[in-house]
Every structure is written in C-alpha cells, then in structure tokens.
Design brief:
Elements: H1 5-19, H2 47-61, H3 65-78, H4 83-91, H5 105-121, H6 126-139, H7 147-164, H8 169-185, H9 193-208, H10 213-222, H11 233-242, H12 247-251, H13 253-259, H14 263-279, H15 283-299, H16 303-311, H17 324-340, H18 344-348, H19 362-378, H20 382-401, H21 405-425, H22 429-444, H23 459-469, H24 473-486, H25 491-503, H26 507-520, H27 527-545
Helix pairs in contact: 1-17, 2-3, 3-4, 4-5, 4-6, 5-6, 6-7, 7-8, 8-9, 8-10, 9-10, 10-11, 11-13, 13-14, 14-15, 15-16, 15-17, 17-19, 19-20, 19-21, 20-21, 21-22, 21-23, 22-23, 23-24, 23-25, 24-25, 25-26, 26-27
Length: about 550
C-alpha cells in the first residue's frame, strides 16, 4: 500500500520535535565488544590490564568512545601505576574526525584531568610516555592556544612518536588518525596531502593485520574523496567483516560505495546497519544509515522504497543519544526526497523545523529552508522564497559567529543557489545565472562532509538545469558532466546530460546516457525513466527502419 506523503511529512515533523530534546553529543557506538577486531597494544602494565587495554583500544578504533573510556578507566583504577590507561580515558573524550572545534567543555575537562593523571604517574615504557606526552600537547594550554594549533601540535608529536617507535603498530595507526584529525580541522586542502599520507601509513597494517579495526576504518576515512575512493574499496568490504555487530563498521563501507556510485552495495550495507542498530537500540546510527539508504534508493529512482524508509524514521528520545548525524538525517531525508524527484511544490510545503537547543544545529535546519526556498522559487511562490532565503542568510551569519566555517560555506552555497532560481522566476536571467555560477564555484572549493551521503542537490546540477531552461545545452552538458566526475551514477546528472546531448544533436551520447539511466533505475516509475525508454525505443525503430 502506498504511504501518504503528507502523512509522512506530519510524522517527520513530530519526530523532529522529539529530536530537539535529544543529547547533543556525537558518538559512534559499536555492538558486541568481542567482535571489534584484533588489537595488540603492548604495555608495561599488568597482564590482565593489558588485555583490557587492547580491548578498549579496539573499541576506540571503532569510535565506541563511551564504552572505551569506561574500560580504560576500570583498567586505571585496578592498576594504580598504569599511566597509559589514563591516556586512554583522555583519548575517549576527543573525537578528532567529528569535532572540528574540539570536545564540548565537559568532555574536554574530563580528558584534561585524565591526561594530567597520566603525566603525573610518569611511568611505563618510553613509547607509553611518548603517547601520553603527545596527547598532553593537545589538552595543554587551551586557554591561550587555539584548537587548530593544538591539533597541529598533537600531529607533530605523533609524527615524532612514530619516528621513535617505527615498529609500534598503534603508534603508526594513531599517527595516521592524527593526520586525519588535522585535515578535518584545517582549511580544505584539495591535494589531500594528509589523507594520502595517512593511507600510506595504514596500508601495511591492513595487509599484515587484516583484522585490525583501526587500519580498515581509517583507510576509509582517508580515501573518502572522489579521486581517492577506489583505493579504499577493499578496506571498506573488509571492515564490515571485522566487526559484524558494530553498526558503524557496517555503515562505513557505504561511504566508499556512495563515492563510487555503487548503490546496491550501499543499500545492502545500510540495511544491515538499521538491523544491527535496532538490535542494540542505537537510534543515532539508525538515522545516519537511513540518510544514506534513502539517498541510494533515490539515485536508483526507487521512490517508494525511499518513502518507506522515511516513514520508519525513529523518534529521538530524551533519554538516549542522538548523534549530529541523526539530526542531519531528520532534516536532509525529507528535503532530498522532494528535491531529488523535482517535486517543487512539495518541497515548498515542507514543515518548518524547530531550532535545536541553542541553535547548535542550524546547518541541519538549513537543508529544509533550502528545499523550501528552491521549491517556492520554482513554483512561482516568490514571497515565500524570499522569506526562506532570509532564514538561510540568518543561519549563515550564525554559523560564522560560531566559527563553523565549513557549515557556513555550505549554507551560503544553498542561499546562492536558491537566490539564483528566485532571480530566474523574476525573469532576471543574467543575475540568476551569475548567482548559480557563484554557487557552483563555491561548492568546488569544499568537500562533502562524512555526515551526509551527498548534497541535497549539487550546485552544478542546478546550474545544468538552469542552462537547459536558458537554451544553452552545450554548457548544460558540461555542468552535468562535472557532477558525474565527482559523484558517479547520480540520477539527476545522468538524466540532465541525456537531455542536453539530445538537444545539441549528439545522438550517440544521448543514447548512451538514456541507456545508462534505464540500467541504473530498471524498476523506476519516474517520468525521466519513461522518457529514456521512449527515446531508446524510438532510436531502435529508426535503426530498424534503416
């Protein structure tokens, strides 16, 4: 039975209200601690402590921060001279790939206290003391040294640690993680220098210790970029096998599948995540997987399946964690469902979200207002488009004030794109095209954040659509090709490229793109796929007539 879109919008609105009550801490939670892979963290602590430390380190590598911290704390309290255990407690309070501005104040103070205890004990091997000193460089002098500078200091300290202990596997793996943490907190570097170096460090561990969770996990993060993704495909498939009961390990392969346009693999991966997350009642991971799952279904034109997933989105609970990935999913899923299908009036009518506590998640709200503004502009609802654009402008300023530079840039891209289509609705064609080109150029300077499988709609895709409306199909084809180079097998760009090729008389290319669309979405009922089938049938008839 087909589910009512309006009913789902109402359910989504209710669930978003519950989401506002959720915990603002982002953690990745794993399942069965005995199935998190194999880590041997050699220390000078008592044998029973070393077993617990290795287990806790495996948890840390799968981003099970809360339980890892508890395991390290237990080891520290049971073994009073085990300084490295307090290092583990401090490590569990900092999530370098997800906190570009650093831990929240409470977590930071807990981490600082733990690393100070480790330093005061002044025990363990030379390698253990180097681990402690390196992490101390991140926590120290926070009142006078900027977060980015402390992240960079930690990276330098880890580089020195690895140079001094090149045979220490954990030194190598945590040094690679420090490089990825620096890359996350620093301005974008399109050469991906740190990411490439991290991958090079991790590959020997992945080859020699195929059950090491950190090696497989961090390779995926290191290569989670269009030009690098192919190099992480083996690690992606392996990580899910290393930790079959970890929702995060089941989900991470889909980052690479998404980069490569392997939608069936992504769907299978994230269905497993939903199953395991429900088993362990981990709502944030479930929502994160649903975002990727809906995205993959939409790229295959499987709109009913995407709608069903949207209808099953769990409500946030005040007594449980809702990761910022879950917050993003609550906003992005309904926005992308309307926009991906080109249902502009439906997009314009999306319910306005309630801000999350303290305005911390206005970048999530922006996804809805972007969809509303774009939908209103393309439906001729000029007044509403202006109101929603004012929201985006306000969010942009808020994010700049909070030094959320990445999200401020993303919201500005959205604002420019919606402004462009509003200008086109007002018949200011030159202004519209200039704004749309500015949005696309700005998007080129950024990278997709791991929290999302992809933009609600790429700026170059919107540019291609606008160029088609302005009867400039040659330029439109170039814009759609730009999308496909970064995001293979994206439905809208394939269809747009086919239309552009058809208009400029490039029959072979149009045939190729329409055939690609039908192959991509064999079961889709979208009008675009019906057009593709009609074109291919006509092409065949013309060929037979010859």
């Amino acid at each position: 039975m087909r589910i009512s879109v309006r009913l789902l919008m109402m359910l989504w609105s209710v669930s978003l209200a519950f989401a506002a009550l959720a915990d603002q801490t982002h953690q990745h939670v794993a399942g069965d601690p005995e199935q998190l892979g194999s880590v041997q963290f050699a220390t000078s602590c008592a044998p029973e402590a070393e077993v617990q430390l290795s287990r806790a380190t495996a948890m840390l590598h799968s981003f099970w921060y809360e339980e890892a911290g508890e395991q390290f704390r237990q080891a520290a309290e049971a073994n009073k001279e085990c300084a490295i255990a307090w290092w583990g407690v401090a490590m569990s309070q900092w999530q370098p790939l997800w906190e570009p501005r650093g831990p929240n104040p409470e977590a930071f103070q807990q981490g600082l206290a733990a690393i100070q205890k480790a330093t005061e004990l002044n025990g363990g091997s030379a390698a253990e003391r180097d681990f402690i000193d390196a992490l101390h460089s991140f926590y120290a002098n926070s009142d006078s040294v900027d977060h980015r500078d402390r992240v960079r200091a930690y990276e330098t300290a880890m580089e020195n640690l690895f140079a001094n202990h090149p045979q220490n596997t954990e030194a190598r793996v945590f040094y690679a993680l420090s490089l990825l943490g620096s890359a996350t907190s620093m301005p974008p570097d399109k050469s991906y220098r740190r990411q490439r170096k991290a991958g090079q460090l991790l590959m020997p561990v992945f080859d020699s210790q195929p059950d090491h969770p950190g090696a497989a996990h961090y390779i995926i993060h290191a290569y989670d970029y269009p030009s690098l993704a192919e190099g992480a495909l083996e690690a992606a498939r392996r990580y899910a096998e290393i930790a079959p009961d970890s929702p995060h390990a089941q989900h991470m392969p889909s980052h690479i599948f998404t980069r490569l346009g392997l939608w069936d693999d992504s769907i299978s991966s994230n269905r497993n995540v939903v199953r395991v997350a429900r088993k362990y009642d981990i709502v944030g991971e479930e929502l994160h997987a649903m975002d990727y799952l809906v995205f993959a279904h939409l790229q295959k034109g499987e709109d009913d399946e995407a709608l069903q997933v949207m209808g099953e989105m769990p409500k946030a609970r005040a007594d449980g964690p809702l990761y910022f990935a879950g917050v993003h999913a609550h906003a992005a899923i309904p926005a992308r469902y309307a926009v991906e299908r080109g249902q502009w009036r439906e997009a314009a009518e999306l319910p306005e979200p309630k801000d999350f506590p303290g305005g911390r998640y206005v970048w999530a709200d922006a996804a809805i207002y972007f969809a509303r503004a774009l939908g209103a502009a393309r439906s001729g609802e000029v007044a509403q488009a202006r109101r929603d654009l004012s929201k985006l402008a306000s969010f942009h300023q808020t994010l700049l004030q909070h030094k959320e530079d990445y999200w401020a840039t993303q919201v500005e891209i959205q604002r420019l794109a919606a402004e462009a289509w509003l200008s086109l609705a007002e018949l200011r064609r030159d202004r519209a095209l200039a704004a749309m080109r500015s949005a696309a150029a700005l998007e080129d300077t950024t990278d997709k954040h791991p929290v999302t499988p992809g933009h609600i709609v790429p700026a170059h895709d919107l540019l291609g659509q606008m160029l088609l409306e302005l009867e400039r199909p040659d330029e439109a084809l170039e814009a759609f090709d730009r999308v496909l180079r970064a995001e293979p097998n994206r439905f809208g760009a394939i269809y747009g490229g086919a239309r552009a090729a058809e208009r400029i008389g490039r029959t072979d290319l149009a045939h190729q793109r329409y055939a690609q669309l039908v192959e991509l979405a064999p079961n889709s009922e979208r009008e675009a796929v019906q057009q593709a089938r009609a074109y291919l049938a006509g092409h065949q008839a013309r060929s037979d007539g010859k």
